[in-house]
Amino acid sequence: MKVAELLFPQGPLSSLEFRDKVLEVFRKAGLSSDLELGLITREHLEALAFFSLEELEPEERRRFFTLLAGLLEEEGNELYKIFEPKIIIRKSSDRRNFQEVVSGVDLRSAELEADRCLRCRVPKCVNVCPVKFPVPAFLKAVASGRHEAAYKISLAIYPTLGICGRICDGFCEQACTLGQICGNSLKIRAMKRAVADNMQKVSGLIDLPKPKSGSGFRVAVIGSGPAGLTAAYHLRLMGHDVTIFDAGERPGGRLADSIPEFRLPLQVVEREVGILRMLGVEFRMGVEFGRDLTIDDLFKQGYRAVFIATGAGRSNIPQMKGVELESVHAALEFLKLVKEGRLRSMSGKVWVIGGGNTAIDAARTALRLGAESVRIMYRRSMEEMPARREEIEEALDEGVEIMFLTQPIELIGEDGRLRKIRCIKMMLGERGPDGRRKPVPLEGSEFEVEADHVIFATGERPSTEWLSERDGIELMEDGRIKVNERLETSRRGVFAGGDVVRGPSLYSVASADGMRAAKEIDRYLRSLSS
Asked: Which of 464, 471, 513, 521 is closest to 493 using CA atoms?
């Protein structure tokens, strides 16, 4: 069948009420009317996809490309397979322990998945990524079986490919053109994980990037989360001597101390932190600023620049009657206790308040600790939940229940211990600045539920209490550090980024801040020598 026949008034596309729009797509794509469908190439398909994003509505795109895929198969054109996911993700059958839920990603299937890439003329996957990860180049290397080359491409961006493949929100997948036209986006994060995990097996054989010759400058990084690690990595490659200070026992910040093992194993964090150690980055753990050291001390010790990346590690618990009761927990602290092995069991009825990733992590963790039942209480609807959709689905599959449009207003105890939660039903009002509809209490809808534990996952805030007036670091009203467009604070030589500046954000956003900070700090240091 030729393209001309496809476009005839009585042709296969005649059933589409938006046929005229499809004709415009073909016209813009420049496909010859004499072209046989069996000879359509990936380049032709990319052109059709590109212009369909301009001309067709989402449902129209799905219907058109579903029909086209069927016709390509009939004509013996193997290109129809590009619409079908190839990735094989192995999952653990036992969800009641702390072993990683995804036990592995088949490497050969990752190669086949990478080969689905349309090689778009405008790589939206790159444009939406906070760190601008070069997805097309990475996938091209994976598709051809050049795993080490793919890994080296990632090392130009960050040392945390395995972490990214597990916890990133995946803006790239949401923007993927294949997902826009057929609903099956490339599984980019799974491919990253497959490559990173494979490289672990041959880690001693990989040539890491080599730092430039020594600049003679020392840089202190305060905080070892995504922003701090990424900044330190790039600063070291730029030739600077870098020391990371952190109050925790293990590098990684929340990556190491509060993201559950079933989602991000500690050994993955340690493996990728190890890359920084191999490059010569020094780690000084258990150092608490304000108690053990100050910003002034760092400059006296010879550091010429400081990057503050201490994150947003304090939980916000709403003020209400009963929060002082026993068995009332803050989510981050709860997750840390479990990760450190200091909390090993939990019984009874558990309620988690909130709708973000931390709430989902806390709920799934409580299940694994042996809770009789675990329910999430969220004041908005499923549509407004900020947690990753796949994590919500995993939680539901494991037995977590979610009560929507409900908010706690009082915790009721007996002999100092939590017994019930008094709640109120909500309705959604007008949209707020973040695009989500604001929850409004429904008068007279109060009710009570039994509870043995409640875990508040209602937001986090930066911990900047350690900064004193003598440090000369200006703060915003909510405690975040104030910076300019170069991530410079009010004190010369001191920079800040990540959640301590933005408030709670995402792994990829914090990593992007780390990359940007490294460039600005390098620029600043070079200016000192000139």
From this structure: 521
CA–CA dist 398, 22 (Å, integer):
43
Q: DSSP character for 422?
A: E
Structure tokens at 87: 């990735």
Q: Write down the residue that tokens 């909510």 correspond to.
A: 478
Mean pLDDT of 269-287: 97
Report d(CA 83, CA 66) in Å as an integer.
Answer: 9
Three-state DSSP class for residue 163: helix
Q: Is 507 helix (H, G, I), strand (E, B) or coil?
A: helix
Residue-wise pLDDT for 139-197, tens only, equals: 999 999 999 999 999 999 999 999 999 999 999 999 999 999 999 999 999 999 999 99
For residue 103, give the DSSP letter. Answer: E
Cβ atoms of 240 and 217 within 8 Å: the answer is yes
Distance (Å, whole) CA 171 – CA 34: 39
* pLDDT over threshold 80, residue 11: no
Are the C-beta atoms of 335 and 258 separated by less than 8 Å? yes
**Where does the pLDDT of residue 204 fall: very low under 50, low under 70, confident under 90, or very high at 90 and above?**
low
Average pLDDT for the chain: 95
Half-sphere exposure (CA, 13 Å, Cβ side) for 178?
23
Residue 336 CB coordination number (10 Å):
18
Full-prediction pTM beyond 0.85? yes
Query: Which CA distances in Å does 85 have to 34, 67, 110, 173, 184?
Result: 31, 17, 10, 13, 6
| φ and ψ of 330, to 5 deg | -90, 135
How sure is the predictor about 203, in pLDDT bands with cuts at 50, 70 and 90? Answer: low
In this structure, the strands spanning 417-431 and 437-441 are antiparallel
**Helices marked H in 13-77 — which ranges?**
19-29, 42-55, 58-74
